[in-house]
Amino acid sequence: MGRILLFVLFCAGLASCGKVNTDLQLAQQQLGVDTPLIRKYINSNNITGFLPDITLGVATGVYYKIDTLGTGNALFTNSTLITVGYKSSLMGSSVPFAQTGTFHPSFSYGQMILGWQYGIKHIKKGGTVRLLVPSGLAYGPYEQPQLGLPANAILDFTIKLYDINN
Q: Which of 153, 162, 34, 160 is nearest to 99 (CA)?
C-alpha cells in the first residue's frame, strides 16, 4: 500500500513539472517576452539614459531613467510612506491611463507594484524617475478594465517623489 501511494505521489509530482502554475512562474515567462519589447522600444525611439534595474545582483526587468535625483537620504522599507505625483501610460502611448494633478497621493512602499518599488529607490525626495515596467512587475496577466489596460501590459511611468516618511 505504501509503495502504491509513493508511486502515485511520484507520478503526480512528475506530471506537474512541465506546467507553469504560479504567478511568479508566469511573470518570469512573460519577462522573456517583455524585455525584448522594452529594449526595442528604447532603441527604436532613440531614447537615451535608460538603465536596467539590478536588485541583489539580478536584473529585475525594470528600466529606469533618472530625470532629477533629488536630495537627502532615502531609506525605503515596506512601511515607508511616500507621496508622489505620477503619469502612467502603456509603453508607446502618449495617452495616460492614470495621472495625478495637484493632489499628490501617499502610498506605503511595500504595497506598491514591484515595478515602482524597484524604480523609486533610485531617487530621493524631490527626484523624478521614468520607469518602463514589464507586465509581471505591474498587473501581470490580469486585465485592468477600470484603467483600460489589457493583460500583460508593459507600462511607462513618470514619477516625482515629493516626500518620504519612515
A: 160
